[in-house]
Amino acid sequence: xxxxxxxxxxxxxxxxxxxxxxxxxxxxxxxxxxxxxxxxxxxxxxxxxxxxxxxxxxxxxxxxxxxxxxxxxxxxxxxxxxxxxxxxxxxxxxxxxxxxxxxxxxxxxxxxxxxxxxxxxxxxxxxxxxxxxxxxxxxxxxxxxxxxxxxxxxxxxxxxxxxxxxxxxxxxxxxxxxxxxxxxxxxxxxxxxxxxxxxxxxxxxxxxxxxxxxxxxxxxxxxxxxxxxxxxxxxxxxxxxxxxxxxxxxxxxxxxxxxxxxxxxxxxxxxxxxxxxxxxxxxxxxxxxxxxxxxxxxx
Length: 299
Known about the structure:
Blueprint: H1 3-17, E1 21-29, E2 35-44, H2 45-69, H3 77-86, H4 93-99, E3 108-116, E4 120-129, E5 136-138, E6 162-168, E7 173-178, H5 184-190, H6 206-216, E8 220-227, E9 230-234, E10 239-240, E11 243-250, H7 258-267, H8 272-279, E12 286-287, E13 292-298
Parallel strand pairs: 1-8
Antiparallel strand pairs: 1-2, 2-4, 3-4, 5-6, 6-7, 7-13, 8-11, 9-13, 10-11, 11-12
């Protein structure tokens, strides 16, 4: 397989993989500001298998290129590269440990385990932190999807959309959950009925719509915060006991409302904030409309 064809194959599968996922992040905060982060990330089994096959093809292509370029020096490089790529595993503890660094100073990897369901495969991992003030959670799960190492970090599918925190000790303790600068309210205006129509307003073919529905069926993204104690006061939109739901997007809900799905298809959102704006009023979908969620709690 030639290099251009390999890259094309990768891009095609990557675009599909970005929506065939389930990601659930739970942040648990104690009254002293310490706590843990529990993440579950799953991908559809069939596409995960396609990804593994694709990486094997990439390894073969790399091996052929290196062999053609230099038949005498470093003959084992191609073989080494092939072995490294071919052993791809979505549950990679080394990479999960490295990701702790992106979550803020003092965040450490505790443990992880493989998780398999009927249609999905992935992992559950737990990180610990000493100060919630230093923690940042990327609400865009695209960073967890395996990708081409040469892919630019500015790719919108992997945009960093950090949720940050501000904590004050006391009795009661106070916690602020801060959304990214591109606020949900601003994005809502962008996709309202008065907004300018998208540049591409062509009706999608029935075949494309059918494919999109197959892809989005089962996709879910969730982020919640648990406080270790009783919540005394909060402005959170969605609260259940000591749990605050920051977002809970079930993309299957889009399929139940044809007009909303059509609007979604035309808008082509690229960030989680844009997804939230489009989906916040769908039944069964939870999106907090506050730019800052305030919580006062005590043990």
